Amino acid sequence: MVKAAAGWAHCVAVTDIGGVYTWGWKECVPSGKLLGEQPMGANVEKDAIERQSSYLNEQVSPRSQGSQSTALPCLVTLNPGVRIATVAAGGRHTLALSDIGQVWGWGYGGEGQLGLGSRIRMVSSPHPVPCIEPSSYGKDRCAALPRGTMGSEGLGLRVPGNYVKGIACGGRHSAVITDAGAVLTFGWGLYGQCGQGSTDDELSPACVSSLLGIRIEGVAAGLWHTVCLSADGDVYAFGGNQFGQLGTGADQAETIPRLLDAPSLENTNAKIVSCGARHSTIITDDGKVFGWGWNKYGQLGLGDVIDRNIPAQVTIEGCVPKNVACGWWHTLLLAEPT
Amino acid sequence: MSTANSSNHLQTPILDSESAQLLQAVSQHGGYAYVSMAARAAAGDLRAAEAAREMAWEQLHSGPWHSVLPVWRDAYSMACLHVAKVHAIAGEFSDALRALDMGLIMGGPLLKPDLHSLVTIVSAKARAARVSEKQQQCPKSDRRLVPDDLDSKELLGVLPTKSLSCKMVLKRSGLSLEGFLREYLLPGYPVIISDGMGHWPARTKWNDMDYLTRVAGDRTVPVEVGKNYLYPEWKQELITFSQFLERIKANGSSSAAPTYLAQHPLFDQVVGKKYIRLYLASLSEELYPYTETMLCNSSQVDLDNLDEKEFPKMRDLEFLDCILEEGDMLYIPPKWWHYVRSLTTSLSVSFWWSEYGSS
Q: Does the keyword Repeat apply (chain A) (predicted)?
């Protein structure tokens, strides 16, 4: 296993040869054959499964009938040749990013979180998510435009970038970033979590136009909010803010990305971001950890249970933080001893 | 499962008989964490009960309202019952009532009877506890919600221009039901019935803070904060009735963020005074309604800051108005536009009804 992610009630993991296993809530575990356009030889599929199974020295566990969850990991059937590099799990949907930068999604799509252009309620096998139009492959026009001309999204502007390099799933929305540093969002938008200046649902991946011109390197999403990190180490947040999860120092929702200008973040560059359902965490390049948002169960690691609406530094002594991952209501920190 | 309530009279027959099935349904919808918390909650673990309630609350807010699964509403009620029981056993009656009311307000239908019966039991316990407490306290001086009558001329200064200068809504006393039907309801014309509620005990009791606090102080009510729902800072809150009473008594009628009990075409003035202005239902272009569908029954015109340049058709419109005093009942015919302003702290009751068969 090289990557793993946990959603509200399901988990998903990636093997080093690009296979995907998932377990937990039945609704999130794909079933049946692939709905891909190209017809597929049964042998190819069998080969792929056998290759992965033998590598893992473990049989694929058939899902037990009648049970509402799968306790044992199930191998996700992918199109032949598709190798997954990383995965993201949301409230009830899953995204997978392939080694060539293509996004696949499955699970619940009622608010557009699978980016398929409709409110499809259930996608029971991996489906390609159209993030970058085929016609724009290799053109990368938008990135060259000066910033002032941006914002006229939908008027024939192409999404800057050739492939997707980062994915995130929130409760019922999704965000991806392209190699050119553009952010696309899709899904539930009631709290502004799609960052499009509205509270509408986005049924297809839509470029967050107010971030065009800023190179985004990292993205994470919570139940109602989204947080982005720029290449310069700045933090942008948007969406619901009922628990301070945006870190803006207020409780108003933001429907367009808002740059965090907290004094605690001055002179430091954010490198890694992760969001729980209602909290957010970052690690900076100088090894500091910050958290903000809901803290009822101590998920900010600050030694108390008081919510924070601005980034608060987490003190960890005697080790260097390497990575951070928020669960729905908790936080995991990977650190090395100094 | 019912160890916690065996020693008390906090019986919840529906919860007891439906729990297993409800938990199975929750499990089917991925709520494994809820199910394990609920088991501990049923055994009297307050922290687990609160966590289960938090999980259900989150699910009620985890998607568009139409996509929230009904099972989570019942799961929310279930967790509220668990929380309330633990509080009630510990003698924390206000906390118990708060939990029960939240269950009634946001929960599903399945466990409503249990919630209602616990409200009755816990309210009685709370009253009994208060009576023994009260005996050591001395009586307070003025506990009337609305103090003295205000000067009507002074009030005119705060009303929109031209108020009370044109046609007034007719005030009728001794109007018979038949007369009301024939002269007002059928033609769709407004009227004030001035002596229809003399027998309502509310007219005196509702002006007594102690009475209001005693009977409903710990009950949770939805309130609207802000001038009206067209203002961006308008919000809804859930507070206890005591908090609401303290807030309106402190605010009087001149607050930056007035608080109203949520709800609002018989309009019965129980305590205090209200100014009401009515425009004909047929006027609509002249009142510049909002174009968004959600607000198409609301006018963009702010009578308190009338911008005649922006809304020129407004100036010469005919209207009816009146000051509704304690004991008055106002009949507002369907679809008439109305502007309401409290002149004193005021308590009104509204009845909405529709003709059988119409929508």
A: yes
- Do B279 and B223 share a domain, yes or no? yes
Adjacent-strand bridge partners of A24: A10, A70
A223 contact partners, CB below 8 Å, separation of at least 6? A91, A170, A171, A240, A277, A278, B58, B62
Comparing CB atoms, the residue among B32, B51, B63 nearest residue A69 is B32
Residue B62: which of A10, A24, A91 has the nearest Cβ?
A91
Do B30 and A9 lie within an 8 Å CB cutoff? yes
Indicate if B94 and B196 belong to the same structural domain.
Answer: no
Q: Which residues of B touch A296 (CB under 8 A)?
A: 54
Residues of A in contact with B30 (CB under 8 A): 8-10, 24-25, 27-28, 68-69, 92
Least confident of A124-138, A150-164, A210-224, B330-344: A150-164
| Domains of chain A with CATH codes | 3-36+70-337 (2.130.10.30)
Return the residue matching tokens 């409290």.
B342
- Give Cβ neighbours of residue B70 (< 8 Å, ≥ 6 apart): B108
Beta bridge partners of B193: B172, B329
Nearest Cα of chain A lies from the Cα of B284 at a distance, in angstroms, of: 29
B99-116 per-position pLDDT tens digit:
998 898 889 999 999 999
**CA distances (Å), origin A288, targets A233, A322, A330:** 13, 10, 19
CA–CA gap between residue A184 and residue A175 (Å, rounded)? 6
Beta bridge partners of B220: B240
Q: Residues of B near A (CB-CB distance < 8 A)? A: 27-33, 51, 54, 58, 61-64, 67
CB B175 within 8 A of CB B193: yes
Q: Which residues of chain B are within 8 Å of residue A297 when distances are taken between CB atoms? A: 51
* B27:A172 CB<8 A: no
CB contact (8 A) between residue A110 and residue B58: no
Q: How sure is the predictor about A63, in pLDDT bands with cuts at 50, 70 and 90?
A: very low
**What stretch of H or E contains B197?**
none
> What amino acid is encoded at B97 in this protein?
L
Range of the domain at B243: 152-349
Chain-chain contact of B67 with A111 (C-beta, under 8 angstroms): yes
Q: How far apart are CA B123 and CA B107, in angstroms?
A: 20
Q: What DSSP designation does A215 have?
A: -
Q: What are phi and psi of B81, to 5 degrees?
A: -60, -45
Bridge partners of residue A95, in order along the sequence: A88, A105
C-alpha B19/C-alpha B17 separation (Å) is 6
Compute the distance between CA of residue A24 and CA of residue A45 in angstroms, rounded to an integer: 24
Residue in chain B lying closest to A66 (CA): B28
CB A244 within 8 A of CB A224: no
- Nearest CB among B28, B54, B58 relative to A68 is that of B28
Model pTM score: 0.72
* Same-domain status, B295 and B237: yes
B232 & B311 share domain: yes
Amino acid present at B146: V
Name the nearest CA neighbour of B25 among B61, B67, B74, B64: B74
User: Could you report the per-residue pLDDT of B79-91, keeping only the tens digit for each?
Assistant: 999 999 999 999 9
Closest chain A CA to residue B55:
A329
